[in-house]
Amino acid sequence: xxxxxxxxxxxxxxxxxxxxxxxxxxxxxxxxxxxxxxxxxxxxxxxxxxxxxxxxxxxxxxxxxxxxxxxxxxxxxxxxxxxxxxxxxxxxxxxxxxxxxxxxxxxxxxxxxxxxxxxxxxxxxxxxxxxxxxxxxxxxxxxxxxxxxxxxxxxxxxxxxxxxxxxxxxxxxxxxxxxxxxxxxxxxxxxxxxxxxxxxxxxxxxxxxxxxxxxxxxxxxxxxxxxxxxxxxxxxxxxxxxxxxxxxxxxx
Length: 252
Ligand SMILES: C[S@@+](CC[C@H](N)C(=O)[O-])C[C@H]1O[C@@H](n2cnc3c(N)ncnc32)[C@H](O)[C@@H]1O
Prior knowledge:
Layout: H1 16-25, H2 36-46, E1 53-56, H3 63-69, E2 75-79, H4 82-91, E3 98-102, E4 116-122, H5 124-129, H6 134-148, E5 149-159, H7 163-170, E6 177-184, E7 226-233
This protein binds S-adenosylmethionine.
Residues 14, 19, 30-32, 57-59, 61, 63, 79-81, 84, 104-106, 122-124, 127-128 line the site of S-adenosylmethionine.
């Protein structure tokens, strides 16, 4: 399996002590990679507003609050950092649709099987991939995510990891996930002036080979793009019948 160590720096992003110290120092909120406005088309397309949602590694991001403002009704937020959870629980004490619990994504045995219609992960698998025993941690986390998803439910992974480093972890047959990939530029990216290729629609899935790799002819406009993996838990009934929610102008 690939391990994307080149993208990790010297911090131990897999360590609760690191995150507790960071959240103690940094007041306010911070959303890694992308804000909800940019992710909304994908969230609204693949996750029903009535779904019970698990946000793994919520940190102090505003994403869950933005989802509630957008009509989502029930979001359970977990993080390994008790500091982050205390701050967020206090901040959102008057928003009953947002719940917070300190928990390790590698052991979510507190929740019964098939509890959630969707699991959202922005940067948390990435953190584990930068920690010790990364492949084992990833397998523990993803095994738990798979267990907690209802059949037909979706694991939405927003990451800097391209298919070469993420697909080997996501494509385990036991998860039985149908995986669709979207690629979006980082915030603030501008196409080079005079760029002759037609502008891409980021709402179109990226073409993948049978091995789950990007097709060699695919050109990524922003080399620092973010990847959105939509992993839908299939069962025998919906294997051939996986329809996402329609994209309409309301959502876009
Ligand atoms: C890169 S930050 C992303 C935070 C937030 N999701 C966002 O988009 O801004 C990763 C988060 O994962 C949390 N985390 C790291 N390892 C974890 C684990 N084993 N279990 C639960 N949360 C973890 C960290 O505390 C941190 O809040």
